[in-house]
Amino acid sequence: MTLALDSAAQDLLFRDARTANTFTDEPVTEEQVQAIYDLVKYGPTAFNQSPLRVVLVRSEDARERLVQHMSEGNRAKTASAPLVAILAADNEFHEELPALFPHFPQAKDMFFAERPVRERAAGFNAALQAAYFIVGVRAAGLAAGPMTGFDFAGVQKEFLDDDHTPLMIVNIGRPGEDASHPRSPRLAYDEVVTTV
């Protein structure tokens, strides 16, 4: 069986795409970010929750504040990336459900009245959307450098509030020289897929 996407698109999104650790100084424009969002917003989430929230770190002041919360190995690349995005889960996503899930507006109170339930749902579904976001960055011809090596509590306090949980930080731009490590191995199909 073949895939519907042509080979070039498959390469762009997956086979040739790599996590970037260095970037050129070419800026990432607001138009590019808008195009990425306009594509990836269609990725599925349960009840169409759409809990992902994105904070774009563009100012020098914000960048300096963010770099202080990064793990040592992630500081230089975060300081030099053309654009950095903080991806977070909105734990109050349910407030938008009447508009996002209009055929069943009572889902807001029926399923998501309790905060612990919302936090689990938000974390899982925002992680799905974060993956869509990374693929969207690749679809824009850019490279992404997703990282979880940072002080989560510090980033939350500095850039978010108690209703938003940071998931990852993504450096975005055109890959620079020696941007990525050699490709690591992947598991074989029969090591992952079981038929029952």
The gist of it:
The chain has 196 residues and is an alpha+beta fold.
Overall structural class, as computed from helix and strand content, comes to: alpha+beta
Shape estimate? globular
**What is the H-and-E element order?**
HHEHHEHHHEHEH
Low-confidence stretches: none
Averaging pLDDT over every residue, what do you get?
Answer: 96
Count of discrete alpha- or pi-helical segments spanning 4 or more residues: 9
Number of strands: 4
Task: Report the C-alpha radius of gyration, rounded.
Answer: 18 Å
Neighbour order of strands in the largest sheet: 1-2-4-3
Q: Give the distance, in angstroms, between the N- and C-terminal Cα atoms.
A: 21 Å
Helix percent band: 40-55%
Largest sheet, in brief, is: 4 strands, antiparallel
Portion in beta strands: 5-15%
Question: What tags apply to this protein structure?
Answer:
4-stranded antiparallel sheet; 9 helices; alpha+beta; 196 residues; 15% strand
Your description of this structure?
The chain has helices at residues 7-15, 30-40, 60-67, 72-80, 97-100, 107-112, 115-139, 152-159, 189-192, and strands at residues 52-57, 83-90, 143-147, 164-173. A four-stranded antiparallel beta sheet has the order 1-2-4-3. The chain is an alpha+beta fold and 196 residues long. The model has no long low-confidence stretch (mean pLDDT 96).
Strand-helix topology:
Layout: H1 7-15, H2 30-40, E1 52-57, H3 60-67, H4 72-80, E2 83-90, H5 97-100, H6 107-112, H7 115-139, E3 143-147, H8 152-159, E4 164-173, H9 189-192
Antiparallel strand pairs: 1-2, 2-4, 3-4
Helix pairs in contact: 1-7, 2-7, 3-4
